[in-house]
Amino acid sequence: MENLKKFLKRKDIEISGKRYGIDALGAMAQGLFASLLIGTIISTIGERTGIALLVTAGGYAKAVTGEAMAVAIGYSLHCPPLVLFSLAAVGHAANTLGGAGGPLAVLLIAIIAAEFGKAVSKETKIDIIVTPLVTILVGSSLAALCAPAIGSAASAVGKAIMWATELQPFLMGVIISVIVGIALTLPISSAAICAALGLTGLAGGAALAGCCAQMVGFAVMSFRENGIGGLFAQGIGTSMLQMGNIVKKPQIWLPPIIASAITGPIATCVFQLKMNGAAVASGMGTCGLVGQIGVYTGWLNDIASGAKAAISLWDWTGLICISFLLPAVITGIIGIGFRRFGWIQDEDLKLDL
């Protein structure tokens, strides 16, 4: 057992929740963003402007979604070059065979293939053959055996959540908005979670509401301490910047959480805001305005399919209110109340920007 521990340490194989559940998951979301999501945005711009080059470029980006996710996961696991490059084939296999639940299949299978590849890396004189061979064979075999089942399970969970949201939009609006919003601020990836579950439709709209409540909420609530820089860093960047302050004083998290519990059901019941673009956008909030672009892309998809006649003023009102106005107003008011009661003190929300 001691020899095994030394071997794993030498190979930088760390079996832990942080490495797999935070580092790898977060990296997977970045790979997904750099392929499927940005590809969708590029191709949508191309379609709306009639620039064929953008449509083609976007298509190329979307075509390597599995590969991008797997390589990103490998990078987060500190894979040697041969393992890292071989993961492209693993990601392609897992994402293709995983279907709608492909991202979750890629996450699980790429992790295993990467660790096997790291274990044999530079252990033989023919490393250039052995390392990619083991990585690809392990990953491809697992993809063939497990990816369809993993994908089906993830898809089933996502569909169940979306079905429940259609059935109980108020209750599920609250639950999804709060949970996904919290996930966005925690050092895990709400985008990857939404992508893995294929969270779209009303459920995707509730997820978007929760993420926006956290990002815009913290940006507005901490404006006194952080100014314009903090407004953009959190409102267009990420509310994860506040995690250090949250650990020191957890009650500063309550205003955005309360706001998400309010805006979630407003999104589902009042505006019926749906995310029919890429599922990963449901967990992005206002980060680079990706969530809003995702909703807009979904509108265009619905119009193209005949499910929607046109984009209405009510649609735009709902998107703007849920994404920006309501989170800012609700969190701002609650934050003022918390400060008056002494639950939030000056400098509690200060960031080192």
Summarize the topology:
Elements: H1 2-10, H2 17-49, H3 52-63, H4 65-76, H5 81-98, H6 102-120, H7 127-167, H8 169-185, H9 190-197, H10 201-221, H11 223-237, H12 243-248, H13 254-270, H14 290-305, H15 313-340
Helix pairs in contact: 2-3, 2-4, 2-9, 2-14, 4-5, 4-6, 5-6, 5-7, 6-7, 6-9, 7-8, 7-10, 8-9, 8-10, 8-13, 10-11, 10-13, 10-15, 13-15
Please explain how this structure is put together:
- The chain has helices at 2-10, 17-49, 52-63, 65-76, 81-98, 102-120, 127-167, 169-185, 190-197, 201-221, 223-237, 243-248, 254-270, 290-305, 313-340.
- The protein has two domains: 9-154, no CATH class; 168-340, no CATH class.
- The mean pLDDT is 91.
- The protein is globular and about 65 Å long.
- It is mainly alpha-helical.
Return the domain count. Answer: 2
Task: Calculate the mean pLDDT score and round it.
Answer: 91
Helical percent range? over 70%
If you compute it from the alpha carbons, what radius of gyration comes out, rounded to the nearest whole angstrom?
Answer: 21 Å
The number of distinct helices, counting runs of at least 4 residues, comes to 15
Oligomer: single chain
Q: What is the H/E string? A: HHHHHHHHHHHHHHH
How is the main sheet built?
A: none
Outline the low-pLDDT stretches. Answer: none
* First-to-last CA distance: 46 Å
Please state the overall shape, judged from the principal axes of the Cα atoms.
globular
What portion of residues belong to β-strands? Answer: under 5%
Structural class: mainly alpha
Number of distinct beta strands: 0
